[in-house]
Amino acid sequence: MSSARERLLGEVIGYFARHGVSDHSLRGLAAAVGTSHRMLIYHFGTREGLLAEVVRVVEGHQRDTFAALTATEDADPRTAARRFWSLVVGPALRYGPLFFELSAHAMQGQPHATPLRTSLVEPWLEPLTDLLTRAGQDRDTAATHARLGLAVARGLLHDLLLTGDREAADAAMDAWIDLVLTPAPRSPAR
Description:
The chain is elongated. The protein has two domains: 1-45, Arc Repressor Mutant, subunit A, CATH 1.10.10; 51-181, Tetracycline Repressor, domain 2, CATH 1.10.357.10. The protein contains nine helices and no strands. The protein starts with a helix and ends in a 9-residue tail after the last helix. The longest helix has 31 residues, at 77-107. It is an all-alpha fold. The model has no long low-confidence stretch (mean pLDDT 88).
């Protein structure tokens, strides 16, 4: 059974998924999810602390989705990457502005976002490296491409949030996937 904190966080995330993330006060958000602002303060400290927790959980769900798509050794890396992109764009349209805002807070060392400094990049690198290694890259190249791929994906999500041009973002991601995950041609045997 989940804790009261986890249930409350789930309610908040569900509310944001249905209504978007905007400038909700703790009182307004508490009323919307059927609790009191005191309970939100008790469990999350501040509005910003609650929002940082929302980002952490949504990121965790995205990593779980990626893990499920790439769980089998025979999963085609290009297909998995394209499927993951298609699945991540929807939540990014809802939570992306919050993600980028709180990422900036983490960069600035604001206390409510400090945990994000270690949870937004590192946990992605090993699974991405594994996928790229399975696609035929040596481990060092795969590790470099994992970090680069994470940056490309986040950059394209940023682009999409600013421009609203889903077609262009999808085309750029397809090009990136083809660039990085297309096996190099083998030289003919001599």
